[in-house]
Amino acid sequence: MTERSQAADAAVAGVQAGGAAVSTSSPPPAALPPPPTLPPAAVTLPPLPNHGAPQPVSGAPRPAPLDEADEASADEGSVAHEVWQLLPSWLTSVVVHLSLVLLLALVTTVHAFRNSTSSTMVSAEGDGSGGEELSSDVMQMSDNLEQLSAVSPGLSELPAPTAMSDLIGPISAQLSTGDLGSKPAGGGTGSADALGVGGTGEGNSLELRLSGASRAAMLRSGGGTSESERAVTLSLKWLSEHQNYDGSWSFEHQKSPKCHGACRDPGSTQSKIAATSLALLPFLGNGQTHREGEYRRTVDQGLKFLLRSMQTQGDVGSLWEPVGTMYGHGLASIVLCEAYGMTRDQVLQAPAQAAINYIVYAQDPLGGGWRYEPQRPGDTSVVGWQMMALKSAKMAYLRVPPATWKKAGYFLDSVQGERGAVYGYQNPDARRPATTAIGLLCRMYLGWGHDQQALQHGVQILSQLGPSIDKTSMKNNMYYNYYATQVMHHYGGYPWQRWNAVMRDYLIHTQATRGHETGSWFLAGADHGASIGGRLYCTAMAAMTLEVYYRYMPLYRDQSTRE
User: Fold this and answer.
1) How far apart are CA 285 and CA 283, in angstroms?
2) What's phi and psi for 437, nearest 5 deg?
3) Percentage of residues in the chain having pLDDT higher than 70
4) Phi, psi (5° rounding) for residue 83?
5) Is there a contact between 364 and 371 (Cβ–Cβ < 8 Å)?
6) Tell me: the pLDDT tens digits for 359-402?
7) Does the model's pTM come out above 0.85?
8) Rounded to an integer, what distance in angstroms lies between the CA atom of residue 63 and that of residue 103?
9) CA 77 – CA 71 distance, rounded (Å)
């Protein structure tokens, strides 16, 4: 893992001041009485350095004679010098000391003022859409990264969280001990107009998850069954029973207080942020929030863990960690954006926007992608989670600079093959089924229409591959299944019906039904995530795949999700 550089010092340089040294070597005029004798000062300050004029050089030629104007100026200087010589030595000392005190006060004031004005990392101006500002607490992004850097040059120097130990802190002390925001009077979740965000369309599809009737209708129309929904219900129960006391989850699920090793197949990755985020997503997908639902306390504790884990600098909030990398940050950003979008809890608004701001910062400034560490040349796998987070942010009416979407499109151009029908990992040659599914889903987010020829070709390729199950050569690749299922669901029609029948029934039949493992999955095979993420990873991915019917509105059947 590449070690991140230390944070750049944002303090301004100290102000240098100078003046000629005072000479007291000439004796006073004979006509005047000598000055009174005073005791010596306890501390003798050195004379101020003369930075205003060059010092005379030994052996230098004498200057040319002065003209009349210069002579007049020299005479005036001589008079001032004589007056200065007439002053008592104690008065001279007082004047010098007072000058030093005023100078130091001026330097300190300027230093503090310039530091305070340089601490903002993100432009305070909005992206120009929607009229009124969200609120005084909301981070608002500039419309493009060039403006962002011009207004806040410090953003380009923001270090990774491992180098921010002296600059970060909890985003709010309230979040670590108190409750999240209370539900608005009347039980409503708010509207785009009320928030002043100028959203378009007929509503926020995230809010539709909260209605049991809406979920049931979308389940039926999308091809779900009572058996598939029962499998989701059992998975939520299993996930809730493997939460830790601090609200987190671990891929080493057997260490949770209620499991005590009763469930097999633990993972090995140590990222609690990634594990917690993956575990929370199925709850949110099923309409469970920290305000309502059977598992509201479970969700509440999980959200508080993420908020306590966030590291902040200015208006940027990082959930990056050396193990979870940008994978974990992307997942956590989706959680915060969805939780805010579903509830309009104002306590979640600022952290959700801060997490999105970090994704904007972490984008590769040249290639437009995302990698394990911020601002590295991207890969399609990491790009997928960041793009889903940005999409969730837009659905929650948060700010995403248009330039971020545009640069992400440039990255997809760099890894595409067959004119955009297939996608590689970091270049077009490394084509994989999973990266092809991710690339196509991202193209949908970026606005490709249903009639786009490359999209149609890509859907045909995925349809020919089919879901990855235990009887295929690409055995049990849930990473591929998760993304490809979304692509096929958005595309709709016969390709989706055919895909769904196989994927849905396979997950229903492979879910554990005995002992403490009931409701979980462990699907060993071609998916590397299963080996390092274990049963928790497989359960979360399978549950979200079965929630596809109501988790997102189909892109080509509802304009409100394509803002």
Assistant:
1) 5
2) -65, -40
3) 63
4) -60, -45
5) yes
6) 999 999 999 999 999 999 999 999 999 999 999 999 999 999 99
7) no
8) 33
9) 10
